[in-house]
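Continuing the batch. This is chain 6 of the set; chains 1 through 5 are on the previous pages. Same settings as before, nothing changed between runs. Recording input and output for traceability.
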Amino acid sequence: MCRVFSLHRSGYYAWLNKPLSAREIEDNRLLKLIKKFYVESGGTYGSRWIHQYLREVGELCSVNRVAKIMRKHK
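Output for chain 6:
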């Protein structure tokens, strides 16, 4: 695969084993809350309602970020 994309093997393995970024860690934490609220709603609420619930419990994030996380994790 490295030959096909003209990459060095060491670069591929460095990318493969890289630690999670602070943004990814925060997204995973938000994902847990989003799943909780989504299940509590019976699977009917979209990103706007979920965002509203997150704001009520004191989470600061945009509706677009909630939508992105929900879209990414279906």
